[in-house]
Amino acid sequence: MNATYDFSGWATRNDIRCSDGRTIRKDAFKDCDGKVVPLVWMHGHDAPENVLGHALLENRPEGVYAYGYFNDTERGQHAKESVRNRDIDHLSIYANGLRQKGGDVLHGEIKEVSLVLAGANPGAFIDVPSLSHSEDSDEFEATIYQFDNDILELYHAESEKEEEETEEKPAKEEKEMAEKTVKDVFDSLTEEQKNVVYFMIGQALEDAGKGGSDDDDDEVEHYGFYEGEDMKYNVFDRSMVDGGDYLSHADQETIIKDGKKEGSLRESVLAHAEDYGIDGVEWLFPEERELNNTPEFIKRDTDWVQVVMNGVHHTPFSRVKTRYADITEDEARARGYIKGRMKKEEVFSLLKRATTPTTVYKKQKLDRDDIVDITDFDVVAWIKGEMRMQLNEELARAYLIGDGRLSSDDDKISEDHIRPIVNDADLFTIKKAVVFEQDATDDEKAKAVIKAAVKARKDYKGSGNPTFFTTEDWLTNMLLLEDGIGHRMYKTETELATAMRVTKIVTVPVMEGFQLGEKNLIGIIVNLADYNVGADKGGAINMFEDFDIDYNQEKYLIETRCSGALVKPYSAIVLWEAAAPSSVDGGVQRSKTTYTEAEVPEGGNPKALGLYELNETTNKYVKTTDTSAVQDKTYYIRTSFNDD
Question: What is the reported pTM?
Answer without folding.
Answer: 0.49
